[in-house]
Design a protein that fits this description.
By secondary structure, the protein is of the alpha+beta class. The chain is built from 11 helices and 17 strands. The chain has 2 domains: 175 residues, Thermophilic metalloprotease-like (3-Layer(aba) Sandwich), CATH 3.40.1830.10; 169 residues, no CATH class.
Length: 370
């Protein structure tokens, strides 16, 4: 066996070795499954081995699992052959399944990632148009759910990021094992400062962006409990470790420099965004390709929709930049609501003149994460 094949086998072995540990964490900590709970496990081909571990752990605690497989090949065939008026529709059997499910585990497939060129944009968008209906049905049924982000990682994303697929998955799995309690402890003092009316300033080098906080607030800590259900946040992300807060869209003024960010058109290697009285009025890519992608994405939007509506703050200490979930990296600042999610990796975020992030490092955390 060649050295390359040995390394690839070792990486694959490292990934599969973490499946039982993460499955146990999802069952006992994220969803706190109880004897008699009905749990639906939906996966694509790449997540099947992990999904089996979820089924095993669910049965250990006396829960009643049902495993559903979305086949990659059948999905691609369906995009080309399903009548368009039925593409992306939910059947009554799926609504019925949600109404009788206590918990849901979803391992998505790479084909529904925005960076997969083998899926035509129009058909891919239509095929996932059921999203709002699914979430509404899950919310009505008070379903406790988790979405495992490693499922999005395929060869296309790996090529985009310039890494081996197994290395990306391994990093995300390790980051998924971070204690949810420690995420909450570090996030708590930040959450307390993200109050409506607070004036915020984001500094990136010589650029400065100011805005006011207003609206909903939440934390992705990897746990779905009754408080989340009541707050209508019943589906939690794993990788965990992110705070989100809505922004008064009319208050944003200034410039911000963002770092490498994955978009529906691929990777943009950074750039500058300029806002005036709430509207995104200018943008500049770091290179020619980035400029072309920004022009395509932002140019297709109406001026009224080009507004900053949300910021995110990353809390996960294990995840590092370049592994597919940069918003979750501790100290990362995400900007969203205007067609892309721009990530700032070395910014300083001040809330009421006091920093919560300084040059890409969390400064308000009072507990260690492990």
């Amino acid at each position: 066996m060649s050295a390359t094949k040995k390394r690839k086998k070792s990486r694959a072995s490292g990934v599969s070795a973490l499946y039982p540990q993460l499955a146990k964490k999802v069952v006992t900590e994220s969803l706190y499954l109880r004897p008699g709970d009905s749990v639906t496990v939906e996966t694509w081909n790449n997540g099947l081995e992990f999904a089996k571990e979820i089924v095993k752990e669910a049965r250990k605690v006396g829960a009643l699992p049902l495993l559903i497989l979305e086949d990659d090949g059948a999905y691609l065939w369906g995009l080309q052959n399903t009548p368009k008026e039925f593409l992306g529709k939910m059947g009554k059997h799926e609504y019925g399944l949600l109404s009788s499910t206590d918990a849901y585990v979803f391992v998505p497939g790479p084909l529904i990632g925005t960076y997969t060129p083998s899926v035509p944009r129009e058909e891919g968008s239509m095929a996932s148009s059921y999203n709002s209906s699914w979430y509404e049905a899950a919310e009505k049924a008070r379903v406790r759910g988790v979405r495992l982000t490693f499922g999005y990682v395929g060869e296309d994303l790996a090529k985009l990021l310039g890494k081996k697929r197994e290395d990306i998955v391994l990093r995300q799995l390790k980051a998924s094992l971070v204690s949810s309690d420690s995420i909450k402890q570090v996030g708590k003092p930040i959450l307390e400062r993200l109050t409506d009316g607070t004036q915020a300033e984001l500094r990136t080098g010589n650029a400065s962006l100011s805005f006011n906080l207003r609206g909903d607030l939440g934390i992705e800590d990897g746990v779905t409990d009754e408080a989340d259900i009541t707050a209508k946040n019943g589906i939690s992300y794993i990788v965990p470790g992110l705070i989100w807060k809505e922004v008064d869209p009319e208050s944003t003024t200034g410039k911000v420099v963002f770092s490498s960010s994955v978009t529906r058109l691929g990777l943009i290697n950074g750039g500058t965004l300029e806002f005036e009285k709430g509207r995104l009025t200018g943008w500049e890519g770091k290179d020619k390709q980035g400029q072309q992608k920004l022009d395509k994405i932002l140019g297709e939007m109406t001026e009224e929709k080009r507004k900053l509506s949300m910021i995110t703050i990353g809390l996960n200490p294990v995840l590092t930049y370049g592994y597919g979930q940069d918003r979750f990296v501790a100290g990362a600042i995400g900007l969203g609501g205007f067609g892309i999610t721009g990530v700032v990796d070395r910014g300083t975020l001040n809330l009421g003149m006091q920093p919560v992030i300084e040059k890409g490092k969390l400064v308000t955390a009072k507990a260690s994460i492990g």
